[in-house]
Amino acid sequence: MRSISILGATGSIGTSTLDLVRRSRDQWRVVALTANGNVGELARLAREFGAEVAVCADGTKLEALREALAGIGIDAAAGEGALVEAASRPADMTVAAIVGCAGLAPTMAAIAQGKTVALANKEALVSAGEVMTALVAKHGTTLLPMDSEHNAIFQCLAGSSHKDVRWITLTASGGPFRDWSLEQLQTATAAQAVKHPNWDMGAKISVDSATMFNKGLEFIEAYHLFPVGLDRLRIIVHPQSIVHSMVEYRDGSTLAQLGPSDMRVPIASCLAHPARMDTPLADTLDLAAIGELTFRAPDEVRFPATRLAREAARAGGGIPAVLNAANEVAVAAFLAGQIGFTRIAATVEAVLNRYAPAAPAALDEVLAVDAEARAVAAAVLAGG
Q1: How many other CB atoms are found less than 10 A from the CB of residue 275?
Q2: N or C end: fewer C-beta atoms under 10 angstroms in the chain?
């Protein structure tokens, strides 16, 4: 029996992970489950899986969580410090699925345990790439990519040397607005942006997909996960989301990982690594029914996010953390109805033009850059 902690247990990645764990209960012991503020669902899951501890990021929810777990021997805690403590508990695998930079400190705490971390929080690696990879090397941690694209690359690279790679190609669905004109994008609403045509995801990630910032962040993440150099990474739009990513080798061979648009596939790859496991998918991939697979170049005039991310990755240092923080602030403003869709990328670019910090060398410095970038983004949105 292996032990597992899930940071972000009530989100889409967390619930999909627990769905697989539920189907093989005799193979897993659940250590820690965390959530942002959904006390009822967190308590229900903690009871079902017999977690050792349940943690709510919202410190004001502690009493409600304690009441929900009273009398059954499950520890209840709340607040940022409690998240880090939960991530520090020994576990054979930690699934890092807290959305945004809020997941950075807990993810780093999990890495410091020197076990296996299945990374679904791309923002953590984007903001603290050099700091995080150095910590992975220091503790000998196994870092498994859980995002569908990076997991696909990981599978395509199995047994091969990075020096033999000619190209790593990240595929992008293009999101719900991929065929919209610039004029149409000006009027796009939050309700439209969160309706992804292929994937069932949370609001923030869905908006990132609509702007293509999701792919830009994944580009930076791939740079840190697969050290082949920025000049051998590229993005292609693939509306069907069947080919999840590709690796072309120097001999001309291209390996691609295909599968349905169901996150349980890459999650299962991580849970069973280096073996395979069954997944409860209703149908296998039926290429004849799909009929055709199409690909096209990204349009960085309508969707400048990938250009901004590529430039941030090339600049390095603290710039990717600025990009991520500014995007989180802008997306929150868009979801709140405070700005229009196209202003998300415009806000990020404005922040990048205003704030160029030195390269952070430790977690506290990354968090300081993140905080300052958020302040600059707020000033930009306020017109200051």
Answers
A1: 7
A2: C
The model scores a pTM over 0.90: yes
Burial of 328 (0-12, 13-18, 19+ CB in 10 A): buried
The whole domain housing 90 covers 2-146
Residue 384 is predicted with a pLDDT of 61
Question: Number of structural domains, the chain?
Answer: 2
Query: Do residues 166 and 216 share a domain?
Result: yes
Per-residue model confidence (pLDDT) at position 100: 83
Nearest alpha-carbon partner for 254 in 322, 125, 360, 152:
152
